[in-house]
Design brief:
This protein is an alpha+beta fold. The chain has helices at residues 3-10, 14-28, 96-107, 122-125, 156-170, 185-194, 251-265; strands at 35-39, 42-47, 50-56, 60-64, 79-80, 86-89, 119-121, 130-131, 153-155, 175-180, 216-222, 269-271, 278-281. The protein folds into 2 domains: 3-107, Aspartate Aminotransferase, domain 1; 114-281, Muramoyl-pentapeptide Carboxypeptidase, domain 2. The chain has 7 helices and 13 strands. It is globular, with a radius of gyration of 20 Å.
Length: 289
Amino acid sequence: MKEEIKTYIEKYPYDVREMFLSLREMILSLDGGISEKMWAKMPEYRMGDKFIRLIAFKDHINIQCEAIQEYTDRLGSYKFTPKGFLQIYTDDNIPEEILNEAFGKYYNGEDNKYEDTDIILVKEIISDIIIELKYATEDNFTGQVIYESNDAYLRYGTLRKLRAAQEKAKMHGCRLVVWDAFRPKSAQFKLWEVCPNDDYVADPYKGSSRHNRGCAVDVSFVDENGNMPEMPSEYDDFSSLADRDYSDVSVSAAKNSSFLEEIMTSSGFRAYFNEWWHYNDTEDYDVVE
């Protein structure tokens, strides 16, 4: 953080400072090309001709962003200034999911091409993410190649959230690794044949997995040297080591999994308890046939 930004926010109460830091991290995580500077004595986050400004007061923060005007209905419980600035008070919850969506669409031009329901190649939107689809190899619990290629796809709405998570990981010198994403129903039937246990594989005869809807992702991460840190278990480990009760794993593994969980859940995903690597989008979609 630049010294002028620190000087600006340090004069405000603790709750306002914490809110500012959360909003700042949310904005900067959206794209590595967003610049931070002071503009007319207030912090500004600019990319090209688009900007967001955070204006602090003793008990709230005003957010200046023209894209927020499209979300006034969904932000009905929040106050707006006569100029259209969103006001978030210290006793309010930050509407992270709505702001991530609004800011992401505002900054990133590809939102003009895609709807949230579109199935999009992950690498098209997140070029620096690592794709290692386990079911495109024999390195999975079936010992068989299930997928025809290593190309990962997700709903665009889910992909925008994954992009935010990737930017947060990069702020710590890390990058995400995708082990599974959209899964065709035909692949779901193959997995069920090998493991007919709905704690780990959704029964395709009864319904569908969020993987089949393109709104779930299996991920881990690597450090700045490209090394994967210790995690609670291997991928597709069906033992208790894989769940989020970390009492049976090392402190290091628990810490690394918790770090990943914080990045993913703060970007709009919900962690699945039985599998530390599995995250569902908080938004659901229809099955892709």
